[in-house]
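From the shared-data thread, chain only:
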Amino acid sequence: MSFCNRVFDLRGHWHRLDPACEAYALGAASYLALGGDAYRARAEGLNPILAGAFADLYAALFGALAPALRGAHDGPVVPGPGFALPGFQVLLVGDDLADPRGNVAGPHWDWNFLTMPWEPALPDELELSRFASFTLPLSLPRAGGGLLVWESVTSVDVDEHAAARDLRQWEATEELTCERAGVHHAYAIGTLVVHSGHVVHQIAPWELAAGDARVTLQGHALFHQGEWQVYW
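Structure, as tokens:
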């Protein structure tokens, strides 16, 4: 059975990301702003289900992440203790991702690690080389898919334009991305993409056809306490 079929077999556990479009998450994504207790509870409920259904996929993922992450800091790659396993984002025909303000496809940098309940707590200043985001495409639209990246816009630029990590940050991100051109990086099914997460990026637009599905395995890694702790 393909990995995508397994994802669809677990449709009863999907969480709808936006009532206005067919966008879902399978897993406890930290960007859903569930709050510490709610996030941990959802992770505790879903992690055994995901681990049981995708043991072979996670083994391959962690094996591929190890050499990709060791260039910055050397340490084992392990699931973040008490955190959600990498999960799946599912986008189906009917998505309206043309609006850059959309919850699914808006330009952003991955700052969710700042709200995670790390033990011990993270230092006040954190080297960006200690963080990474990754995507493994499992299914793509027939017309292709990828990531739109603003190489010249980083989280530091956004912070300099934003008063706080809230609506003002999103406004600053949009302002910066409108001023500068994004670069399209095409995805290939089965090819792991790892990046810093601190360059502004978004799901690249695509043409959908009947029967298309965009399914990706998503997650992050933070070098903490001498190891790369992986979570979603």
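The first strand starts at residue 15 and ends at 16.
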